TrEMBL record:
Protein's name in the database: Uncharacterized protein
Length: 179
């Protein structure tokens, strides 16, 4: 489990997860050699854009093209983290340039960072000390819509209700499992 004690279920549109096939999963990156093989198969144009990533419940990084659905990258499974990541070469080594938790399918809490960090460390990728752009997701307790909290303004963009300070996106999550 993640440091927050939470695995994230897919909470996005049902038609998206219904279209996921077991073979859709992203490339599994367990080691530096796995990453080297994966990155060698990417074009220069592909490497200019961020990639979709998830961290599986086994702690393993999975990568897919940017426009891929996170739930497809995860083969429909729960994740410990999800977002977008970009890479660059530094002194002959690959490193993470930017990494976010931006996944509107899983809406992971910013507390998912330790799981993402551990997966990047396992793949021997240098990386920032935290999400370079952390997205705060909340579900409105009144209208039930998912929101992205911007500039610390915890108000629903759909109905103007106050949003909770604590992560609450998955209504079926066991809230005793983390902050």
């Amino acid at each position: 489990m993640s440091a927050s004690g939470r695995g994230y279920r897919y909470v996005g549109p049902h038609h998206v997860i219904a279209a996921v096939k077991a073979a859709d999963g992203g490339a599994t990156i367990r080691t530096a050699a796995d990453f080297a093989d994966w990155v060698a198969a990417r074009s220069a144009e592909e490497l200019e854009e961020p990639f979709t990533f998830v961290v599986g419940t086994d702690g393993t990084l999975r990568l897919a093209p940017r426009r891929s659905e996170h739930v497809a990258c995860a083969s429909g499974d729960r994740v410990l983290g999800a977002g977008e990541v970009s890479f660059y070469r530094d002194a002959g080594r690959w490193a993470v340039n930017e990494v976010t938790n931006q996944s509107t399918g899983y809406c992971p809490d910013v507390a998912s960072w330790p799981s993402v960090e551990q997966a990047l460390d396992q793949a021997d990728l240098d990386h920032p000390d935290c999400f370079t752009h952390a997205v705060v997701f909340r579900r409105c307790p009144i209208c039930q819509e998912h929101n992205i909290v911007r500039e610390g303004h915890f108000v629903c963009v759909f109905c103007d209700a106050d949003l909770p300070r604590r992560w609450n996106v998955d209504p079926n999550a066991d809230h005793s499992d983390g902050p």
